[in-house]
Amino acid sequence: MKICANCFNDIEIKESVEGMPRENGICECCGAEGDVVDISEVEDFFCELLSLFEKDDNGRPVSVIIEQDWNIFSSIASSDKILGDILNRNNFAYSINDNVSYIQDVKECLNVWDELKKEVQTEKRYFSNVGAFDWSAYIKSNVKINKGTVYYRSRVIPADKKELKRKEMGCPPADKATAGRANPIGIPYLYLCDNIDTTFYEIRAVYLDKVSVGRFVIQRDLDLVDFNTSTNLFYAFNSENNDDLIEFIKHKILFKKISADLSKPLRRYDTEIEYVPTQLICEYCKHTGADGIMFKSSLHQTGTNIVLFNKDDAKCTKVYTKEITNVTITGK
Ligand SMILES: [Zn+2]
């Protein structure tokens, strides 16, 4: 089967196909005329990926799961054709029309976070079965931030004040620290963002609010657990120093789930029990020696949130006063 780069959405595969010796022809997947390569050039990767699924009447077609979880193809139709061809020619126990789910090993990783959440919210908390799963294989520092890196944190200026001072921009004292997604009540962590706009979203600033923005400088090199690992699947498969694709996929699935819960906005009607699982994970990160965590902001798509376990690791060096003049709210 001859395929073209346009049948893929995944940037690494696209670039890899574009970098191969290509011939002019018709893509047997999308029908377009142009540069094509033989499917065998990328087949090893797909065979390994497809081997992580098994027939399951309660599942969904493999092309749908792969598209939804990994966004590799330019459309479900391309996913169907390319994966269908590979499944037909190789010895798989299921076909493109069968319903499948991830194999047990991956499924275990998919469920472990939900099980932990249920346990610490409804069964037992401080001596949970957290040890039954090898969290240490996945949760460890994976990113360094250097001394001197600048982050931001904002607070809405109370009506009776003109501005806030540097010392008022840090985290609240322990006796005033309410619980958050990352920190338990009474144990303050420093929540920062990698850009100013994200801080406005994170504090839910509204039109005409006056806001103080603190500029925070990191005081020493820090090791963080970044839950938003952006490494590409195809890239990971082809890089020499990587473990198996299955380990990589498990890691990514687990981090995606934890990250989604970490970045869920706090709501007025939340109970603190909702925050217990993510607090526990943060405690675990701290226990492994990490200085903090990182995850994507769900309120501002391009922003990253940074949580430092020790407030002295970042120092507020300047405070700017801003007024919120433009608010974009869209519904769906
Ligand atoms: Zn094509």
Q: Would you spell out the secondary-structure blueprint of this structure?
A:
Elements: E1 2-3, H1 11-18, E2 23-26, E3 33-38, H2 43-50, E4 53-61, H3 62-70, H4 76-89, E5 99-102, H5 104-122, E6 143-145, E7 150-156, E8 190-193, H6 196-202, E9 210-218, E10 222-226, H7 233-238, H8 245-262, H9 276-287, E11 292-296, E12 304-308, E13 314-323
Helix pairs in contact: 3-4, 5-8
The structure holds zinc ion (ZN).
The site of zinc ion has 8 residues, from loops.
Structural notes for this entry:
- This protein has 332 residues and is of the alpha+beta class.
- The protein folds into two domains: 101 residues, no CATH class; 188 residues, no CATH class.
- The chain is built from nine helices and 13 strands.
- Strands 6-10-11-12-8 form a five-stranded mixed beta sheet.
- A hairpin with a 7-residue loop joins strand 11 and strand 12.
- The mean pLDDT is 89.
List keywords for this structure.
five-stranded mixed sheet; three-stranded antiparallel sheet; 9 helices; 2 domains; binds zinc ion; alpha+beta; 332 residues
Order of helices and strands: EHEEHEHHEHEEEHEEHHHEEE
Give the structural class.
alpha+beta
DSSP, total strands: 13
Q: How many domain regions?
A: 2
How far the N terminus sits from the C terminus, by CA atoms, comes to 40 Å
